[in-house]
Fold each of these.
Amino acid sequence: MENKNLRFETEAIHAGYHSGEHLDSLVPPLYQTSTYTFESAEQGERRFAGEEGGFVYSRLGNPTVKILEERMAKLEQGEAALAFSSGMAAVSAVLTALTKTGDHILCSRGIYGCTFGLLQLLEGKYNISHDFSDMSSREMLEEDIRPNTACIYIETPINPTMKLVDLELVAAIAKQRGIPVVVDNTFCSPYLQTPISLGCDIVLHSATKYICGHGDVIAGIVIGNSEFIQTVSRTTQKDMGGIISPFDAWLLLRGLKTLPVRMDRHCENANRLVEFLRSHPKVETIYFPGNSDFVEDNSIMHKQMKKPGGLISFSINGTKQTAQLFMNQLKLIKIAVSLGDAETLIQHPATMTHAVVPENERRKMGIEDTLLRLSVGLEAWEDLKEDIEQALERI
Ligand code: LCS
């Protein structure tokens, strides 16, 4: 059956896979192989020259990985995709493909700590500079774009402050100037937000998170137009080599089947917990796109996100020590970085995911010492609420 205009839930299960090409196996097979055999020396020559299709070596392509890439391209409404060994391998392959010495990268005001670390490295070693911008109006963005700006790099919601960037606005301004817009869509997954449909050019993920959903894989994905994906495939992926293993791709294909179901539950649980946290005197501020106190961001949320998502950041009344004391009192909720798993996880960004960001930069991003980030899992929300309630009582 030629699949036309199928809904997201259906594509998450079927896109990119044709069982007839794989001995009618219902589930995509795991091609756990490093290389492929050629019928003859001439065939090998033709495959290397690109004159004949087919696989040659698993750093350059693998059938299991290819199914994952086609499925992700479909879900993100892009033309093509490439899978990587980690989210950071995806980020670094994209940024090094788009820039050269002397270029400038304009970023949202707040990005994941290791992405910040990568930008420092690119600046120190290759003189590729960067700036952070609030991107909250056309005027502000036009002022922050420089003649040498080679790409705009956005997280929305931003890790961990949950601020939102208006993707349609940024894409429209960037398009006029021919600057590609890259969106790290890790916090939303394509179920909640599809930046390419809003005019952005490239989407990437730490697939370690919601795409996997089960906390057992580190991986990354990049989605874009065929030309860009082919460039990355032939340069910064092939030659730097941060490719995904076939087994991890297989686990991601399994995880993707339940993405819509999982996301609905993550979102429902997060909504319930936000309602509870809002009424608690020991909780100071809640950073959550669906929180009506977050007025300005709320309108952007309705414009570009299906639902507010499964992550909640909040600050505790008190000090860093109060926040840490609260974490230590939790019994069910685990203290761990990462997000998007079945288990609810809590972390302290200032000393964990964003510890590499210098304190003055952290404050500018809005990461205070009392800020906590909760990745709401799939447990019964009442049990999560009771755990948080008892921990708050003890501080
Ligand atoms: N982008 C975002 C938004 C992330 O949150 C992360 C990891 C990455 C990229 C990098 O992906 P990785 O290489 O780890 O697959 N974020 C983490 C976090 O918030 N807690 O632990 C890791």
Amino acid sequence: MSEIVEKQSYDFRAIEAKWLPFWEQDGTFVTNTADSRPKKYVCDMFPYPSGDLHMGHAEAFAIGDVPARYWRLRGYNVLHPIGWDSFGLPAENAAIKNNAHPAEWTYNNIETQAESFKRYGISVDWTRRLHTSDELYYRWTQWLFLRLYERGLAYRRNSPVNWCPSCQTVLANEQVVSGACERCGTPVTKKALNQWYFKITDYADRLLEDMAQLEGTWPERVLAMQRNWIGRSEGAHLDFPVDGGHTVTVFTTRPDTVFGATFFVVAADAELATELVTDEQSGELEAYREQLKSVSDIERQATDRKKTGVFLGVYATNPTTGARMPVYATDYVLADYGTGAVMGVPGQDQRDWEFATAFDLPIVRTVQPAADFEGEAYTGEGPAINSANAEISLDGMEVEEAKAKIIDWLDSKGAGRATVNYRLRDWLVSRQRFWGAPIPIIHCPDCGEVPVPEDQLPVTLPTDMRGEQLAPKGQSPLASNTDWVSVGCPVCGKPATRDTDTMDTFVDSSWYYIRYIDPKSTSEIFPTEQANQWLPVDQYVGGVEHAILHLLYSRFITKVLYDMDLVSFTEPFKALLNQGQVLNGGKAMSKSLGNGVDLGEQLEAYGVDAVRLTMVFASPPEDDVDWADVSPAASQKFLARAWRLAQDVTSARGTDPAAGASGLRSLTHRSIADAESLLGAQKYNVVVARLMELVNAARKEIDSGAGPADPAVREAAEVTAQLLSLVAPYTAEDMWQLLGHEASVANTAWPAYEEALLVQETITAVVQVKGKLRDKLEVPVDITEADLEAQALALPKIQRYIADDGGVRKVIVRAPKLVNVVTG
Ligand code: ANZ
Ligand code: ZN
């Protein structure tokens, strides 16, 4: 009885406990950036340290680890780093509540997350870990600010900004959602403040043009969102004389319709309205403005919103018709788009149509609609009509031709010119909050704005402020710390003050992926030569919630770094993958719905590998995963089955597989070949499905074929371990060892498939009816009984015999060689 070896059962806890410390001690995933093999850089959007990791992280990181591990097996030198986006409001709010310093909350949470992260077995290089709230990091965020400042790309201006009365901070336009603060839901108001901006608008065209590099490797919808956000419009600036000696310029995309401009509208909240309004009308304007404060930009522009406005008491003159156009202030014109003034063309613009109807203004069509078209603005194509004066006629021309002609004519009169307008605004980067990188500027009564000299960076945050001292007071909490604020002017030495605002955390995250190249450097932001070697990132992975801002800002900063000769690439992320969400019961997990699933509990119950495998297997990576519809228990069973294969193999390591069962060998080699194309197409879920088939086939070979000594079984088990390592690293590592190999499976060579084995071997099966040979079939040797029966019964000849003989009574199947149909 001595040959009977005691078989162990699959114990994920023991396997995790065994391999986690091994990888760490072995440095399995540490990247040597000086290594000369071809490189691949996989980057996951770094987490914000709120509480522990959750199911969303578990999904994103399981997905991001697949290409990282795959490319490692393919022989690339892979960089896969991790860090934390660790400045931001929640830490500060927690500190106020708990009478603590934000650093305490932040770094405690980071530790918790890092532990979970390690346990989760993601193949990252821990030696490159960074935190944006470390002095070591934000020194370079400040350095970057100063470089932008030098180039005129960071500037301060006084303007009305979005203000959240509850968070007591300014918000970028993009942080205002339906008129409310993205974070707390409080209605946003406008406040005039002196604020720092980055001049991203200078890069609008390049941000658009360079998207050509991303076509096909970024999700189309993300490119569309970037395009819309930048919002390039070709059109013209037209000048209109207005009573009182003013000239007001409008931006229009339809200069061809100028003959139909019958009124003039300006943004009620723009300075311009104040300049134009007559004394008699100014009271009414004030009252109108009051109502406007609580309406968001999006609501203001909605076509179905009732049109309102106030007559300003003055008229503009249409340069083509000489018509006197009453000037109104209205809310559907935005103060900060175009010039904040619009020529009202009700015949062709629906919002103008509604305004004209509400205020009983003339409507003149300048494009000919179809015969029965009426009751609304006509925005389609067609020949121009009603568009002629003594000097020029557009009548009969199509829109594009008419546009060109009228621009020429107006240009010759000095009353108009072609122009391009963008929806994109400069990036408001200052925040009146504590937990961020201080803006490295000193204000001197004599010298004005003075950049902090480089050798005085970083401007560090005070460590002794806590609790209530951090509460928002309409200005940065730093302003109340006079010790911190008072400083000698670096130029003249006189008493001066530090800028008390901190930077938007989007600044921190706009460049971290380059810092990973050398995160500990104290002498430079990053080493240019190595950055050029490693970037752009080959695969960036993260949520679609960052489809606009984070990506736009990162793209902008990359272009600025390019212009500074610090990098040689113009786009930071070659390919982008947006993973879906993890839902529960069809809905996003949330506290209020009580449908949250705790990641820690899942890991306890099923093990890391089962959770990871479930995430990857559930759907293509970009689709949502509904935790109510998946079965981590089934994943765990599959992993146990795969693991048992490795334990059952009895052939020696290195046995030539050529003598093994050909059916299984063929499946193994097809699995490798298919995995290559599936991984390339990011169909990670299908790779898992194929592995399940392979494991089943190998098991069958053990149980009813040549048994555990068949070298084809070893081959299948080894390939399973390697492919499985992409999603279930613990189980795969243990299998690899059971199969007699040295760890780590993560650093093995991708198995090569043999072309000849991809062809499925076939055999001729005979089909009998009542024992008589009636037809033949060419079938794969490993066809199942059910498939063989179905194929035999579907043969037209056989169907005829069955019909003539009174139907099927019984079918006897001997796969793959024989089917006998008993009829009558
Ligand atoms: C006259 C006109 C006639 C217009 C027509 C359109 C159609 P996009 O494509 O988004 O750039 N507009 C200009 N400034 C505006 C502002 N501050 N707030 C609201 N609307 C504004 O849109 C440009 C068009 O939006 C401009 O062309 C202007 O209306 C309006 F048949 O001018 B148009
Ligand atoms: Zn000075």
